[in-house]
TrEMBL record:
Keywords: Membrane, Mitochondrion, Mitochondrion inner membrane, Transit peptide, Transmembrane, Transmembrane helix. The keyword Signal does not apply. This is Cytochrome c oxidase subunit 8B, mitochondrial. Belongs to the cytochrome c oxidase VIII family. It is a single-pass membrane protein. It is found in: Mitochondrion inner membrane. Pfam families: COX8. GO terms for cellular component: mitochondrial inner membrane; respiratory chain complex IV. One of its GO terms (biological process) is mitochondrial electron transport, cytochrome c to oxygen. The chain crosses the membrane at residues 39-58. PANTHER family: CYTOCHROME C OXIDASE POLYPEPTIDE VIII, CYTOCHROME C OXIDASE SUBUNIT 8B.
Amino acid sequence: MPLPAASRLLRTALRARVAPVANISSKPAKENITAGEQTIAMTVMFITILGPSGWILAHLEDYKKKE
């Protein structure tokens, strides 16, 4: 009995050698990132990701109204 296409695809994907997503190294970092820089980076990431979804949720009732 032949395998379904999705099952064959999954088996092939599991067997394939995929390039690593992250560049993991055992060496110490070349540049140290300060706590201030980390705070700024995290703030920008949260605003970028959560800002638009928060806007949509805050204005959900406006989007439901038919004009």
